[in-house]
Design goal:
Elements: E1 4-9, H1 13-28, E2 32-34, E3 40-47, H2 52-70, E4 74-81, H3 82-86, H4 88-94, E5 100-102, H5 110-118, E6 124-126, E7 147-151, E8 153-154, H6 165-169, E9 173-174, H7 177-189, E10 194-198, H8 207-210, H9 215-222, E11 230-233, H10 243-251, E12 255-260, H11 268-273, H12 280-293, E13 298-305, H13 312-325, E14 329-334, H14 351-376, E15 380-389, E16 394-398, E17 410-413, E18 423-432, E19 435-440
Parallel strand pairs: 1-2, 1-3, 3-4, 4-5, 5-6, 7-10, 10-11, 11-12, 12-13, 13-14, 17-19
Antiparallel strand pairs: 8-9, 15-16, 15-18, 16-17, 18-19
Length: about 450
């Protein structure tokens, strides 16, 4: 009988792709794969440790598995990902229930690690080269069948003062374009209709591999893949958005008019201190240009409150910026002083002040979102159905304006059955707790 392996995947979409790759390798080696780490011979938890909250979540997940191990519902435990890369010996020393660890350069060693730990070896350590080129492999999709992440690169060269990612994931490493197109074609053949293009910084794609940025060419090539209807681009570093890229974002019909551009702050002094290129004037010019060139554009960004140097004036400047540009999607996070980063050694506001500011931004943003939702009432929008909600007694899905897991949803009624993965036309008629509500348009599928 094959050994069974269950997974817990934490953190971002990039981590999820790594989990899917480990699942594939283990399945090819003859293991029985489960997405639920219960009643399994081996549990693997792929961790994140980007900020303190992510570390706490990872440790809690490991402790939950440890309890399941003590109860006999889990045999062995392997910890992979950023937490084990960052705290190598500490994980084994402080969490004795863990049987082995793999760093972010060792996902490809998962089969050997599983074999050895199940053979009884203890305290295994696998730490490969985090700067090695990406190794191409298959995936076991853990997203719903109609959408999937397409990771175009790993690592990061930006070295923002508050961020530990370059030390955990290595230098920026682009995947060859032909491999990405081939993967997109394979995903489309499996029924994927929406690609979520991700990397730590998608706008840098190709610079290390080809000597020039090639995201524009990649998106054009992906747009030719039959079966893919939506291409959604996340994590565009603002100062690397060329005119060529903006042209493609505006003109490629499959690229949805939704851009995720993390700006973190707008105060010039804070941006310099945090090693962020560009300034407020540049950001304002960029967002104005994008709005002009891409009608109906939905913009998402992430902001950090309590960064070193953020006084009341700097925070007021950030609030004024949001009032002016009214970004449709905003995530506000409290600064987490991560050991090993330059920002952790700087003076920064007390955490309670930073939390108050994040709460204020959330309230400010809620009014912007209410206005945005109100502006959509009465309109017809193409919606990708995600399934049926028993709680709401309606179907639910997403339009171009909602990315999976981070934005809201669209609830809609239909007199005829709608399957997950179907694209339908929905007339938006109301709102419910921040989500849009509608009904299937008379003409049905778009």
């Amino acid at each position: 009988m094959a050994y069974s392996v269950g997974f817990v995947s934490l953190g971002c979409g990039k981590n999820q792709v790594n989990t899917e790759q480990m699942m594939y390798r283990l399945r090819e080696a003859g293991y029985a794969i489960s997405e639920v780490p219960d009643q399994v011979d081996l549990a693997v938890v792929n961790t994140c440790s980007f900020i303190e909250a992510a570390k706490s979540e990872a440790i809690e997940a490991i402790l939950t598995l440890a309890q399941a191990k003590a109860q006999g519902r889990v045999g062995k435990i392997l910890v992979t990902g950023c937490l084990s890369q960052r705290y190598q010996q500490e994980v084994l020393d402080e969490l004795p229930e863990v049987d082995g660890i793999l760093g972010t350069g060792s996902y490809g060693d998962i089969v050997e690690a599983a074999n050895r730990v199940l053979d009884g070896e203890e305290h295994l350590r696998f730490f490969g080269d985090i700067n090695a080129p990406e190794e191409e492999t298959g995936r076991v999709l853990t997203t719903p069948g109609h959408y999937a992440y397409l990771q175009i690169a790993d690592g990061c060269d930006n070295c923002c003062a508050y961020c530990i990612i370059p030390k955990l994931r290595g230098r920026y490493r682009s995947r060859p374009m032909e491999e990405l197109v081939a993967e997109a074609e394979s995903l489309a053949a499996r029924g994927v209709r929406e690609l979520l293009v991700i990397a730590q910084d998608t706008s840098r794609y190709g610079l290390d591999l080809y000597g020039e940025r090639r995201l524009a060419q990649l998106l054009t090539a992906l747009g030719k893949v039959e079966g893919i209807r939506w291409i959604r681009v996340h994590y565009l570093y603002p100062d690397e958005m060329s005119e060529e890229l903006i042209d493609v974002l505006a003109s490629e019909p499959k690229v949805v008019k939704y851009l995720d551009i993390p700006i973190q702050h707008v105060n010039d002094g804070i941006l310099r201190r945090m090693n962020r290129r560009g300034n407020r004037a540049y950001l304002e010019d960029l967002l104005t240009k994008l709005r002009r060139r891409i009608p109906g554009l939905v913009l998402r960004t992430s902001l950090i409150t309590g960064l070193p140097g953020e006084d009341e004036a700097a925070f007021a400047e950030l609030c004024d910026f949001l009032r002016k540009f009214r970004l449709e999607r905003v995530g506000a996070f409290v600064f987490s002083p991560e050991e090993g980063t330059a920002a952790a050694r700087m003076a920064y506001p007390p955490r309670e002040v930073a939390q108050e500011r994040a709460d204020f931004l959330a309230e400010l943003q809620s009014r912007v979102m209410d206005d945005f939702n109100a502006s959509r009432l009465g309109k017809r929008e193409t919606v990708l159905c995600e399934g049926w909600s028993d709680e709401d007694a309606m179907y639910w899905g997403r339009s171009y304006a909602e990315s999976p897991d981070i934005d809201g949803k669209i609830l809609f009624s239909s007199e005829t059955p709608v399957a997950p993965g179907d694209f339908v036309t929905v007339t938006l008629t109301g709102t419910a707790d921040g989500d849009m509500v509608g009904e299937l348009a008379k003409e049905g599928n778009p």
